[in-house]
Amino acid sequence: QVQLVESGGGLVQPGGSLRLSCAASGRIVGINDMGWYRQAPGKQHELVAVRTSSSRTNYADSVKGRFTISRDNAKNTAYLQMNSLMPEDTAVYYCHAQGVVVSTDGRARSFDAWGQGTQVTVSS
Fold it and tell me: Which of 42, 68, 98, 118 could make a disulfide contact with 6, Cβ separation 3.0–4.6 Å?
């Protein structure tokens, strides 16, 4: 019912920057939390950053001061600006959103959706 499409991943040198985008589509009534998680090979899935509908943010300690999450609520889109990238930031980044959608029966229901993931590789 809700699809999240990510873009913006790729290969970047250490110290470089990337901007990830995540666009949500569907019969969305509203999105509460929208954020990014990542998973590196051999490591656990971890929160990177999340932004609530009231603009509160939460960041992993490892990215504070380097990454910034923002949202365009009118477009149901979230962004992750990643600066001063390091090799340890290499991972597949997943967008996540929670909110309310109009289901096929016309009723408002909560949703919890994930994107397909986008690869970020930081290497010289």
Answer: 118
